[in-house]
């Protein structure tokens, strides 16, 4: 089980968030506080807006209403320059990894660093090599193109790139999707290790019940346009039918047993 959280600081606070596309309201008066150093899993039925919520926090989706505070700063109350530097403190791994296929793994990471700094090329290459090692890839992977890597290695390359600017907060959209159970478990270990060694706060959208049990301190369930947050034990006591089925159904029970 994940270790107990000590810090109660909030790194992200969402208040009364509304997201809508046309008449379709996805989130309404959604409140969420994310604690420093926690691994928060986000689950919910298809189309409940898990990805939209993540994109809203990182600034890729424009909210219709509400307040977002990141590391104590209200994103609507700061200058563009302050917002840009705040965004650099968040690393994102999108579902498809989203690496540039025409660049090697190392070049993918170097591109992010070069976009935000003026460091000498050799130094940037060394930082990229460090990130590649942190993500658990062999050093040679840096010279390979994404198409030359396995799915699991591509995910690790995506993590290396998400870590390029030393973020405080890491967002992962279904990181273990498409991996076999062994690859998924190894990836969970990597996330837990990175969280621990780098002191990251991790927000992870997932359908993987094993990941939720193995590495998440708390889970947020998107439900009725809001998010209900708790530990698995707390959520397992909820009466809501979707939550009951999710954690108490055959797959949920099997995952609970294997992590007891
Ligand atoms: N830019 C957009 N314009 C219009 N509708 C959008 C946009 N982005 C998302 N949506 C809609 O919002 C809804 C939620 O999408 P989102 O991808 O966040 O769901 P999800 O909970 O992550 O789903 P899944 O588990 O299937 O990946 C969907 O109905 C989607 O079509």
TrEMBL record:
Domain ABC transporter: 12-248
Protein name as it appears in the record: Iron ABC transporter ATP-binding protein
Organism of origin: Kiloniella litopenaei
Matching PANTHER family: PROTEIN TRIGALACTOSYLDIACYLGLYCEROL 3, CHLOROPLASTIC
A Pfam short name: ABC_tran
Keywords, alphabetical: ATP-binding, Nucleotide-binding, Transport
UniProt keyword ATP-binding, yes or no: yes
MF (Gene Ontology): ATP binding; ATP hydrolysis activity
